[in-house]
Amino acid sequence: NRRFLLARRPDGEPVPEDFSLVTQAIPTPPPGGLVVRNHYASLDPAQRGWMDDTESYMPPIPLGDPVRATTVGVVHASDNPDFAVGQWVMGLNALEDYSVAVPGGFTMPIAVDAVASPSNYLSALGAVGLTAYFGLKEVAKPQPGETLLVSGAAGAVGSAVGQIGKIMGCRVIGIAGGPDKCRRLLDDYGFDAAIDYRGKDHAALVTEITAAAPDGVNVVFENVGGAVLEAEVYTLARNARIVLCGLISEYNATEKHGLQNLWQILARRATIHGFLIADYAHRFAEGGAQMAQWLSEGKLRADEDVQQGLENAYDAFMRLFSGANTGKLVLKIA
Ligand code: NDP
């Protein structure tokens, strides 16, 4: 059982020495529990936060433990009558070949078929797709004709948000890094406008967003924070809503940028709403069914960036921070 351990807490950007890959015995199921052979693991920006020893919505990953990750896999051994050996499951496990699932933990069966591949449960049909769906539908509540601005727009969450925004009748503007990603926003995901944030100062970003949204932005779906958010607040229409989904530009920063000009929020009567997908766990079946329907109807495109092998976990993870990933970043383990 190869396991990718957190050996030391990263100071800023993670380095390879913060992790170690060890081989241990394959575990046996605890009473009432399971052992899962992981096939795919989700690599998420949130994992960077879990590596820090700071107060958050989940405890930090203990040093010496494998890096926590959502995985999909097959039941390898079972002491639970509800789970048969060979059955596909999804759960909050770790970057390791085999994970132990305890009774009452977050493990659920998944239907792998012609419509849904195992890795789809880490992308469009998993937390990422549901983050886009519930964050937009239930928190932002966009009205047809409103202007929606998405940062991190070519990423897993952002590309889904933009496409769902189009389905809901919004005008959708995306901010992403580099000309290739901006082309994908327009050609692959159907955004109305795309803005490349790289190499642009505050004034240039504000000018470009304003040109794309002359009447102001009604809804911001924020994945990035920092300088991007700082520019966005100068482009808000009155009563705009900002859904604070993520702040990836700050995850490796030793000094957080923060929002410098809160006055813009006040003057524009805007709202900032923090959002965590975990709060919608009781509605995953509903959101998953809608996402599956849009996928099967061809209304939604969900790209996956599948990297190979636990031994490449570090390099794969860092793609999230260089922007190398094209679509939902997934690590194939088995
Ligand atoms: P993505 O697929 O979007 O990958 C991360 C992307 O972030 C990169 O491709 C890169 O795109 C961009 N990025 C990285 N560093 C920076 C930076 N310094 N400045 C600007 N952009 C940067 O990842 P996810 O879709 O999985 O996650 C997107 C966001 O959603 C994250 O902030 C994550 O924490 C959040 N999230 C929140 C959830 C919640 O419940 N609130 C649940 C799931 C995700 P580019 O090339 O465009 O720079």
Tally of helical segments: 9
The number of distinct β-strands equals 15
As for the CATH topology of the largest domain, it is: Quinone Oxidoreductase, Chain A, domain 1
The topology string of helices and strands comes to: EEEHEEEEHEHEHEHEHEHEHEHE
Q: Label the structural class.
A: alpha/beta
Oligomeric organization of the protein chains: single chain
Helix content: 25-40%
- Give the CATH superfamily of the largest domain: Medium-chain alcohol dehydrogenases, catalytic domain
- The CATH architecture name of the largest domain reads Alpha-Beta Complex
Small molecules bound:
NADPH dihydro-nicotinamide-adenine-dinucleotide phosphate
* Domain module tally: 2
What would you call the shape? Answer: globular
Rg from alpha-carbon coordinates: 20 Å
Unreliable stretches (pLDDT < 50, length at least 5) are none
Protein name: Enoyl reductase (ER) domain-containing protein
Keywords: Oxidoreductase
GO molecular function: oxidoreductase activity, acting on the CH-CH group of donors, NAD or NADP as acceptor
Name a few traits of the molecule.
single chain; 334 residues; alpha/beta; Quinone Oxidoreductase, Chain A, domain 1; Rossmann fold; 2 domains; seven-stranded mixed β-sheet; six-stranded parallel β-sheet; 9 helices; 26% helix; binds NADPH dihydro-nicotinamide-adenine-dinucleotide phosphate; oxidoreductase activity, acting on the CH-CH group of donors, NAD or NADP as acceptor
